[in-house]
Amino acid sequence: GWLWMTDPVQAGVGAFGDLGTHSLDIMMWLMGDIARVAATVDVAVDNYHGCDEFGEGLMVFANGVVGSLAAGWVDVANPVTLELSGTEGHAYVCNGQLFFKSEHVGGADGLTPWTDLPDAWPHAFELFLDAISGKEHPPLVTVEEAAARSVVMEAFYQAVAQQSWVTIAQ
Questions:
Q1: CATH T-level topology, domain 3-78+118-165
Q2: What is residue 58's DSSP assignment?
Q3: Can you give the residue ranges of every domain in the chain?
């Protein structure tokens, strides 16, 4: 079964780490390495004694960009999965649709879904089946990227334990 995921001793993390890792991966893919983090995790309904059910993290990327990460098992809809904003535009994903606004890109009004996208990859399970049957695909995440994300997520949980910012060695 899946209940091992609710045991931080076995899983290494709780809900924040379980679901937050996926958004963290995208954020690091877009923005690069992270210099320092702070976080808090907590229990909402205590369905899994001793395991966090949600968390909030704040991070400063090596390039100075500030990001925030919210993740947990208590948001049944998870309607907004990613939002980026800057001085010249913004993009966000809501209910699986990308909205993008930029004065530098024609048609990017931020009001209608942006559909000028590359073809989607096959479902992760299809890629897994292909891999075990010997078909080769480039990895979605390299070993080095996975290790870097694990280091950052571990730093988030260290920040929770210390109730302070944690610097990530580069």
A1: Dihydrodipicolinate Reductase; domain 2 (3.30.360)
A2: E
A3: 3-78+118-165
Question: What tens digit of pLDDT does each residue of 86-96 get?
Answer: 899 999 998 88
Asked if 152 and 168 count as a contact pair (C-beta separation under 8 A), the reply is yes
Pairing of strands 109-113, 80-86: unpaired
CB 91 within 8 A of CB 99: yes
> Which long-range contacts link 86-93 to residues 24+ away (Cβ below 8 Å)?
none
Given the structure tokens 């690091």, which residue do they identify? 28
| Cα of 10 vs its chain's centroid, Å | 21
Rounded distance between C-alpha atoms, residue 95 and residue 24, angstroms: 18
Place of tokens 């907590």: 42
Q: Which amino acid is at 81?
A: T
pLDDT single digits (tens) 50-75: 999 999 999 999 999 999 999 999 98
**Reported confidence tier of residue 79, pLDDT bands at 50, 70, 90:** low
pTM comes to: 0.86
83 contact partners, CB below 8 Å, separation of at least 6: 90, 91, 92, 93
Rounded to the nearest integer, the mean pLDDT of the chain is: 92
The values of phi and psi at residue 77, to 5°, are -95, -40
Query: For residues 101 and 129, what is the distance between their CA atoms, to the nearest angstrom?
Result: 38
